[in-house]
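Item description
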Amino acid sequence: MLAQRAELEAAARLFRALATPSRLQLLCLLAEGPATVSRLVDLSGLSQPLVSQHLRILRETGLVTLTRAGREAVHALADTHVSHIVADAIAHAVELEGAPAAPAH
């Protein structure tokens, strides 16, 4: 598969959005179901400003949606692809950590 430049740039933006453990943690939490910022703060142990900043980045890249419910803002994964990407990345990283080192050439 030969990807077009625009597709590669879009994928790079996606990987940049996934590049911090805190954002991955928030995506894992949202895979369990929609949540408010305050709920994500409680579950993640991150500060409210940090959670809000990470959610902004995740919304801008289309990974997370925002729905207003009265005065509350409820965040959710944009689609199931997001949770699959995160779960696959974590599984791959765990496999790499457990794999023996490649021989030096």
About this structure: Residues 63 and 78 are 5 Å apart (CA to CA). The helical segments are 5-17, 21-31, 37-44, 48-60, 80-98. The first strand starts at residue 35 and ends at 36.
